[in-house]
TrEMBL record:
This is tRNA (guanine-N(1)-)-methyltransferase. The keyword Kinase does not apply. It is found in: Cytoplasm. The gene is trmD. Its main location: cytoplasm. It comes from Deinococcus piscis. PANTHER family: TRNA (GUANINE-N(1)-)-METHYLTRANSFERASE (PTHR46417:SF1). Homodimer.
Amino acid sequence: MTQPPPALTFSVLTLFPELLRPFAAEALLGKAQARGLVQVQLRDLRQWSGNRHHKVDDTPYGGGAGMVIRVDVVARALDALRAEQPVDEVVMLTPAGQTFRQADAEAWAAQGGHWVILCGRYEGFDARVERLVTREVSIGDFVMMGGEAAAACIMEAVARLVPGVLGDQASHEDDSFSSGLLDYPEYTRPPVWEGEGVPEVLQGGHHGAIAGWRRTQALARTLERRPDLLPTAGLTPQDSAELLRLGATPEQLTGWNAPEPPASKPPRRKRKAAADPV
């Protein structure tokens, strides 16, 4: 019986495939490949250099420091991959690309298919490579020596969301950014370490109280560390009330487009005791 193709295939075009080989073979990514859920193909870009010295770069027109990866080399590589199997997306890793976020990881995992990732080196790719790709992606506002580490980050972020890769498919739903907030703090044994104990609410077994505590902690962490996430966090009226209690101002709530907190109920008046009949 023919085994169905994996839900997701990454073909990584790189000058240094050995940098990624151990990463792709270990932990959840390695297990996902063994189970046929994900496939990672590491391809050496020099294989399509077109010259006996396997040279893939050249000096930039107009002068300047560094070397630039040639567009014809990338084009030959992409043509060869398409001849082997259909390609759904071609991703170029570049500081000029759109910042990769959790929502992208979720969308890519849901889309599945065959994704080619171009890892640059030196001064990057010839600008004409841009017309050969479907997406330009960055993992943050910083510069590295090559795209391999960024490719590893993206592959792990996407692959873990493919159904069946994680032991508990629902385990990622409360991850930082998946809910729009930073994740709440987690604890395990020992119950007390160097005088610091696990919060009692987590040991009480009351699921409603635990859920409320976790939501409050996620709001508190996000307010303190990443308030820029709150405008898109899908806040509820109860969240707005909790944020005010945590120190946010009404002006901040307005700036985050947060809903109005629930109106406080007026205190109930006590009924006067009826007079005894005469």
